[in-house]
Amino acid sequence: MLDAIYYLSFTKSAIGSQDRLAIQHDMPSFTIHGTYSECVLAIQFQKGKTKTLKIDGKEPDKLSDVIGKVPLVIVLPDDTAMIKEGSEERRKFFDGALSQFDREYLQNLLSYNKILKQRNSLLKQNDGRALNYKLIETYDDQLIPLAVQISKRRQELKELFLPFLKKNYAELHEAGEIPDLNFKTQVNEGFESMFRNNFQRDQIMQRTLLGSHKDDFEFVLDGELIKKFGSQGQQKTFI
After folding, report:
1. Pairing label, strands 224-225, 29-35
2. Alpha carbon separation from 117 to 113, 121, 206 (Å, rounded)
3. 237 Cβ contact list (under 8 Å, min separation 6)
4. DSSP 7-47
5. Are 42 and 70 in contact, with CB atoms under 8 Å apart?
6. What is the pLDDT of residues 22-53, one digit of tens each?
7. Is residue 172 a contact partner of residue 128, using CB atoms and an 8 Å limit?
8. CB-based contacts of 29: which residues, under 8 Å, 6+ apart?
9. What separation in angstroms does the CA of 137 have from each of 24, 128, 140, 141, 146?
10. What's the CA gap between 115 and 97, in Å, rounded?
11. Span of 49-53, 72-76, 111-115, 168-172 with lowest mean pLDDT
12. In what order do the strands lie in the sheet with 216-221?
């Protein structure tokens, strides 16, 4: 039931990466309807066909148009992976929060990820064939300003979010521990020059080594990284 509600807000499952895994055994499809005070949402998925979404009975231009219609956060037992795993898990959480109330951020993020994928695909062709440097330059001209906007917005969210984290942690835990967040990014003053000068390394590694896709949020408790020093109880309380 919780995953169905999540599905309506994000057009994807919170616990499975593939839509077909959400279909009941021996069934060809699934349909979810949700009636909210803000709108009525419906999603249908059938094996071998495109997923369809309707908002108040009408199909939007794209699936991402539903994000933010019914904002929500889901908490699951496996969420401590946000602490234990790599930076992608933490970015995903904060990106999900930001995208629900900042449409411009969502569009910037979608554009950035698309261009990054294209640039990396081009860099992987560096196997003796001549690279299309003009195309790389075109990607860079789009990627750099998007990275600046995305990382700046993440930093702003961290500042906005931190007081709520501290307040709620204090209500859950009376031992006086102080939670904190550090935002780590390569996208700062001088990023454009650093990014363009790193092209040779990108060529060698066949991927883009600098940018917003390397941003990270460090979870801290009493001045120490909770990933290294926090107990299971502390980690679950932090989440």
Report:
1. unpaired
2. 6, 6, 12
3. 169, 172, 173
4. HHHHSS-SS-SSGGGGSPTT-SEEEEEEE-SS-EEEEEEET
5. no
6. 888 889 999 999 999 989 999 999 988 889 99
7. no
8. 23, 44, 45, 46, 47
9. 47, 19, 5, 6, 14
10. 22
11. 72-76
12. 179-184, 216-221, 224-225
Amino acid at 82: M
- Sorting pLDDT into bands at 50, 70 and 90, what band is 130? low
Q: Are 146 and 213 in contact (CB under 8 A)?
A: no
Tell me the β-bridge partners of 35.
40
Helix axes 103-123, 133-172, angle to 10 degrees: 130
Q: CB neighbours (10 Å) of residue 176? A: 7
| Global pTM exceeds 0.90 | no
The amino acid that residue 218 corresponds to is E
Q: What is the DSSP letter of 78?
A: G
Rounded Cα–Cα distance for residues 231 and 80 (Å): 11
Q: Which two tokens mark 54? A: 């309707």
Return the H-helix or E-strand segment holding 149: helix 133-172
Q: Rg of the Cα trace of the chain?
A: 21
| 3-state class (DSSP) for residue 63 | helix
Residue type, 207: R
**Which residues lie across from 53 on neighbouring strands?**
43
Query: How far apart, in whole angstroms, are the C-alpha atoms of residue 30 and residue 14?
Result: 16
Residue 175 DSSP symbol: S
